[in-house]
Task: inverse folding
């Protein structure tokens, strides 16, 4: 899993701020991405055991959560409050983890530090760009850059010890979960099919109903003449009125209990590759081509083991991370300003 350490850059340009954000990479090094201007005043937004976190720190994390803010000239209004709250909780968590690293007297090996510094500088397109960052963001101090990188690596050390390393899920763990939760791996009966639908206008007149039936019968004739998935799909794209026409009329896999009774009845009479007669659902007419019929079954462990391990590891990681956050907050003084 990726580290949750945020390592971002903000480049100041006159009265506005142009931010650049890197990924949650293990060394904190990734190519920066240009972001539209945002106002920053370095106003405190939180204190963690006396350590001040500012709106600059908050913006870095908000851009990590929503990296498209530059393209959208800001954050979506409906989501901005939740993005801000999530970012605030993250920067507080990271400060708590950093302080824990200091309490444990953890150190960063010299070789790792040198490599991380080199990786960090590779983010910049040129030496001049790095010098601009150094001047505007770090007050010209290389030492501040080193401190920022060291902070990121110390945070990552604690996360590795308390979360990452403990979140491992073995194949035996996954199998045990599989055997204890059989219902989670039961797949219902399903069909894979394509459709061509003729949809009349709302409240159709008698003449419109007749015209719709004639059109449906013509569609049925053409559909019956198709010999393959491709031919049926191309016809669906050409004459169908339903939304699936943009995808060759393909509904992919649909569980039986999610289909209308008329469609289930028609599908039950078909073999893969066969085309149904007209199916009427209210005023609409549909023709379907069955591509596959899968009976209800339990997925085998071999089929699910890879995805299951990933899912279980992610869940375990989040639980461990939440537990770490709770433990660190229990003895900390956190003030949101």
Result:
């Amino acid at each position: 899993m990726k580290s949750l350490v945020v390592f971002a850059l903000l480049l100041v340009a006159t009265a506005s701020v142009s931010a650049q954000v890197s990924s949650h990479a293990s060394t904190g090094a990734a190519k920066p991405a240009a972001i539209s201007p945002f106002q920053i005043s370095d106003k405190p937004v939180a204190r963690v055991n006396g350590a001040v976190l500012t709106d600059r720190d908050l913006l870095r994390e908000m851009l990590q959560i929503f990296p498209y803010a530059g393209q959208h000239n800001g954050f979506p209004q409906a989501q901005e409050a939740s993005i801000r709250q999530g970012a605030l909780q993250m920067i507080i968590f990271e400060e708590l983890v950093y302080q824990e690293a200091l309490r444990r007297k953890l150190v960063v090996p010299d070789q790792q530090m040198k490599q991380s510094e080199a990786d960090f500088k590779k983010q910049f397109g040129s030496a001049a760009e790095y010098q601009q960052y150094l001047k505007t963001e770090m007050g010209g101090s290389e030492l501040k850059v080193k401190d920022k990188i060291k902070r990121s690596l110390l945070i990552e050390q604690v996360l590795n010890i308390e979360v990452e390393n403990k979140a491992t899920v073995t194949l035996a763990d996954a199998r045990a979960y599989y055997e204890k939760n059989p219902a989670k791996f039961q797949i219902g009966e399903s069909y894979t099919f394509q459709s061509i639908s003729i949809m009349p206008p709302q409240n159709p007149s008698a003449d419109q109903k007749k015209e719709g039936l004639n059109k449906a019968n013509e569609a049925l004739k053409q559909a019956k003449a198709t010999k393959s998935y491709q031919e049926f799909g191309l016809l669906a794209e050409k004459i169908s009125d339903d939304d699936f026409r943009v995808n060759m009329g393909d509904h992919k896999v649909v569980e039986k209990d999610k289909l209308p009774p008329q469609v289930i009845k028609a599908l039950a009479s078909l073999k893969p590759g066969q085309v149904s007669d007209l199916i009427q659902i209210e005023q609409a007419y549909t023709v379907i081509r069955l591509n596959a019929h899968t009976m209800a079954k339990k997925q085998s462990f071999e089929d699910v083991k890879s995805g299951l391990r990933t899912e279980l590891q992610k869940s375990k990681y989040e639980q461990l991370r939440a537990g770490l956050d709770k433990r660190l907050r229990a003895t900390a003084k956190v003030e949101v300003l």
Observations:
- Residues 59 and 326 are 24 Å apart (CA to CA).
- Residues 301-330 form the longest helix (30 residues).
- The first strand starts at residue 8 and ends at 13.
- The radius of gyration is 29 Å.
